[in-house]
Design a protein that fits this description.
homodimer; 307 residues; alpha+beta; PSTPO5379-like; globular; Duf1445 domain protein (chains A, B); D-Glu_cyclase (chains A, B); Putative_hydro-lyase (chains A, B)
Chain lengths: 307, 307
Amino acid sequence: MSTTMSTKILCKDAEATALKLRLDTGLRVRLAARSNEYTKSTSGLAPTYLQANLVVLPSRYAADFRGLCARNPVPCPLIAESSSVGNYSSLKSYLPRLSTSSQLAAGLDLRTDCPRYNVYDGSRLSKAGVSAVTDEWTDDHVAFLIGCSHCFESALECAGFTVRHSVQDRTVPIYRTSVPLNPSGIFTGSTYVVSMRPFPKKDIERVREITRAYAPTHGEPLAWGWDALARLGIADIDLPQWGDAPLTEDGQQPLGTLVGDDNNVPVFWGCGVTPQEAIMKAPLEGTILAHAPGHMLVLDCREDDVL
Amino acid sequence: MSTTMSTKILCKDAEATALKLRLDTGLRVRLAARSNEYTKSTSGLAPTYLQANLVVLPSRYAADFRGLCARNPVPCPLIAESSSVGNYSSLKSYLPRLSTSSQLAAGLDLRTDCPRYNVYDGSRLSKAGVSAVTDEWTDDHVAFLIGCSHCFESALECAGFTVRHSVQDRTVPIYRTSVPLNPSGIFTGSTYVVSMRPFPKKDIERVREITRAYAPTHGEPLAWGWDALARLGIADIDLPQWGDAPLTEDGQQPLGTLVGDDNNVPVFWGCGVTPQEAIMKAPLEGTILAHAPGHMLVLDCREDDVL
């Protein structure tokens, strides 16, 4: 690499870092996403601001999807939806402490305010990672915002716990399970999807306690222990279906080399990929929109507002 | 049997029938239970009035139990709780359409208004079928009312469907499953308990649709089909853990003689025994109170008020 090119890359990195630092509120992230000034993952952006998964469905599926969330609140915590069919700028909140749309996200445009989107034709991905869905949005679409686990991870870090994938700069490992979701209308036959973070056995009760309060963002773990893998129908801890494979604390070995170890006990939470899976498995027709993985909608409210 | 004795029995039956007919509102049932004029099962009493399962816990377990219901709303639909710790006469409603305690049950006394109660010392049954728990109730107790399936059974009957155990004058069969509950605090390691009603395969979508609306009383089925037994971990349809074994339509054979039959497909709903099981499995201490099985609390609101 020539010195000139290397300097250019360094400059670009410095610019990117400066931009990231400037995106310190939900509103700033949304505006930068809207103008395409920012089109990357929202991980680490606007600390303490609540981030949400976005799912947009044709209105004929809205009641069944609302029911799916109501019947499976641990993996599918619904925090808000379009205030009316076709509305991309105003939300109905399900968070008890935040009643108005502007408390959630002022001046919102759900068609542009995620950094990246995926577009599906039924269950077939038709466009990956587009920067806006203005052309795809119709007056028959209904948006749903689902809580995400960034929220309780921050709380764990504040309490002095190490969230391993985070310090190792990896993506949280995510697994399909055999635990059935409670079906709702057209959404049948799906199962829980879970995320995993390892903790020492002695810390698990405290980890449960800290995350319990964050009910709209999955709340406390749904299972823990090496024996939980069998109960959840997870064949191999080293082969997550999404995210990066988990590692030992020193980052040198797969976590599966420590099966049974009390200092590295897998702890499983409900995961927002669950409703996406349920949608992909259902025989839906029409245009479905979602944020691209990791490119979430960042809100104006704070993580502690879900408490 | 002598003619005199037979006449006496007939008179007694006629009296009992007359009493049942007079108990045509929730209030009348509660007052008759309070005075011990009526001490039998509430099945068939006060048609259209909402009946509820009662669980009363020491206050230190209240938050965890509330969380258990919130995280598992299909088998544990919480419809109300004591408006404050120790309160046996006023309820906080979780039904969206009924906000005041008096809309649920005017002049309530939770210590006397079920026809029969069970008393537990921790998880040990210490008194079965007592007519009041006035002496056991303390100012540290919190009562929880959980929805029950009578509600959607009425709706199915109104729509012209046969609820088989009901026309056969038997108790609905209830099964333990291997599907894990989402844990909440001290309530860990429990599984769903489900009730079963057989329907012809062609009717299942309509049965799902009718019961879907009754979200606070378990809502739509959580599984259906002969293959659902394996998914739920139910070993034998003819050996329910509670209630009566299910029969063929003519009442002559166990339902299990028809495995695979499309006219007798098992349909499973979440069951209010689930929270009772979770309580019995948890390492609780102190005095726990509950209605005796079948001897429910009858409310002033109507079944359709949960819609």
